[in-house]
Amino acid sequence: MNVPANLKYTKDHEWLKTEGDVAWIGITDYAQHELGDIVFIEVETVGESLEKHESFGTIEAVKTVSDIFMPVSGEILEFNETLTTQPETINKDPYEKGWIVKIRMTRPEEVAELMDAAAYGAMIG
């Protein structure tokens, strides 16, 4: 499994990439592999401020539907519109083109509570 060293990770298999107080969120390579073929992404929280651990959307695969959770608190600024017509982008490129939302962090200090690549890699085995 691909676990980029420049990202932070949650136990629920979301990743976070930060640039100042802005961050991008997606699901990990491990998560997309476990879900299988992704067929639909629903995010109706653009413009909303959510707390860490709150669900900001759902991801639907052929076999299941899963909630996607906020790794840190913040305001949802943007949804990756590519996923509207090409949800399989997450299967092909979960860390670059397959990002799900862009947020403005309201508590950037929460990033320190997330796992680094080594800890996440150890968790997924």
Your description of this structure?
The termini are close together. The relative contact order is 0.27. The strands form two sheets. This protein has a six-stranded antiparallel β-sheet. A three-stranded antiparallel β-sheet has the order 4-6-7. The chain is built from four helices and nine strands; from the N terminus they run βββαβββββααβα. β2 and β3 (22-27) form a beta hairpin. It is an alpha+beta fold and 125 residues long.
Number of helices: 4
Structural class: alpha+beta
Q: Order of strands in the sheet with the most strands?
A: 1-2-3-9-8-5
Shape: globular
Q: What is the CA-atom radius of gyration, in angstroms?
A: 13 Å
The CATH fourth-level homologous superfamily: RNA polymerase II/Efflux pump adaptor protein, barrel-sandwich hybrid domain
Topology-level CATH name: OB fold (Dihydrolipoamide Acetyltransferase, E2P)
The second-level CATH architecture is Beta Barrel
Order of helices and strands: EEEHEEEEEHHEH
Low-pLDDT regions: none
Biggest beta-sheet profile: 6 strands, antiparallel
Q: Count structural domains.
A: 1
Averaged pLDDT: 97
Distance between the termini: 10 Å
Strand content: 35-45%
Helix coverage percent of residues?
Answer: 10-25%
Broad CATH class: Mainly Beta
DSSP strand tally:
9
